Amino acid sequence: MFKKLNTKTLIVILLILGGIYAVSVLTDTSESSFDKNLVAIDTAAVQQVVIHFPTTATPITLSRSSSEEWTVSNGKKQFMADARSVKGILSQFVDMNAERVAATKKANWKNFEITDSTAIKVEVKDKSNTLAELYYGKFSFSQQPNSNQMQRQQPKVTTFVRVGSKDNVYAVDGFLKTAFQEKIDSYRNKKVLKITPADLSKVSFQSTNQQFEITKADLGWSADGQLVDSASMAQYFSKIKSTNSMAFVDNQLITGATPDFQVVFEGNNFNPISIKAFAVPDTSIRYAIVSDQNADGVFNGSTNDLFEHIFPSLLEVVRK
């Protein structure tokens, strides 16, 4: 009788334990119970990224125009897109992994600013299909453990994301949401000039009342037969060799206008590059700048002294 009682008791205990295990497997929301990989896309297949903002009706659309070139549009205007900005956005879709499940019910979406009316919605498409649909909610900041008391503790940033029509909200490491900005200018090609000084052999300057050429020879740079200070020339090239600007102005400012200043860079391994400056009545702009290296960009010449760096600075070099 004692042995039978033990056997029955053992069976009951095993059944209870088995039930507890089954329930834990079915209801577990720990990191080991969900697929951490939210998105994994071959970015070479992506043809379009459509970004919807809660505060604007018209989305921002990035479209692939060739293997390496993209355009950006907002329904009214279209421009060439900045390659680095697009690359940064696409990198999110290569392998987006969640750290944890933050919520499992739609009722909790508002706590993470990830409802249909508050989140940034991003659609990733190939030629005929939607590859992914992501919603980006709010950020969360937390302090990371720091064993070295001498080093400044860096906060950990988490972005809350949900995928498609699923209810789950996931915590993903990083400032992911900052890649998506409402203003179209944030995605535009910002290049004004990109040169390699060692490849240059000639720089031509022309204004409404002056023109000259600076050429490179064995003894260095010279203008009109007179040697130009080599250190000043090197400093000028160093200042302008990689010039970018986010200060775009309306292209209509220079429609039908004649440039007041022009600098042309010539040399090896590249086609001649012309940069022009157009005087405009707006004193906050003074000169509108255009470059052969950016076909649809017109830049504010006053912002960060863009006009002075390219044109008057060259005049100063020659006058020394």
End-to-end Cα distance? 113 Å
Helix content: 10-25%
In what range is the share of β-strand residues? 35-45%
Radius of gyration: 30 Å
- Mind summarizing the main beta sheet? 9 strands, antiparallel
What is the tally of beta strands?
A: 21
Structural class given helices, strands, pairing? alpha+beta
Order of helices and strands: HEEEEEHEEEEEEEEEEEHEEEEEHH
The total tally of domains equals: 2
| pLDDT averaged residue by residue | 88
Point out poorly predicted stretches.
1-5, 21-32
Q: Which word captures the global form?
A: elongated
Jot down its keywords.
8-stranded antiparallel β-sheet, 320 residues, 21 strands, 19% helix, alpha+beta
Q: Overview of this structure, please?
A:
- By secondary structure, this protein is of the alpha+beta class.
- The chain folds into 2 domains: about 35-145 and about 155-185, no CATH class; about 190-320.
- Helix content is about 20%, strand content about 35%.
- The strands form 4 sheets. A 9-stranded antiparallel β-sheet has the order 5-4-3-2-8-9-10-11-7, with no helix packed on it.
